[in-house]
Amino acid sequence: MNNNERIWYITAIAALYLVLCSISLVRYAAIDIRGDAGTVSAVPQLLCLGMALSAGAYFIRPQLGHKGLILFTVGALIAAGEANATATFFHLVMLSLLMLPYITARVRQRAPHQTRPAASRGQ
Asked: Which residues cross the membrane (predicted)?
């Protein structure tokens, strides 16, 4: 896997996380400022902040942002646990997609490489 290249679906995930987490951060800040609707736990706020920063970092330094997205997605998956099945499913799918470039890079390293088709070798 080239560490400096952007992968289109990881870019889409980073954009999705950037938008969703930024909206959530604004919502959490409004709840904290108003104070009349209760408070939100610090864990979701920190996870949203980390995901938004990692998503933004992906557009500047893809390798750093990608690893940050993986880290905070694992954190969100652990934090969601069994309490919210929809959130758990969403983060499992996102984690699978985020890990896909690393998995395919490993498979490509182990596969034998052929430079020419077998039929043209004898000629």
From this structure: 7-30, 42-60, 67-83
End-to-end CA distance of the chain: 34
Q: Do 66 and 98 touch, CB atoms closer than 8 A?
A: yes
**Total residue length of the chain:** 123
| Single-letter amino acid code for the residue at 113 | H
Distance CA 88, CA 75 (A): 11
What type of residue is 99? M
- Secondary structure (3-state) at 122: coil
**pLDDT tens string 65-105:** 999 999 999 998 888 877 788 888 988 999 999 999 888 87
Tell me the residue type at 23.
Answer: I
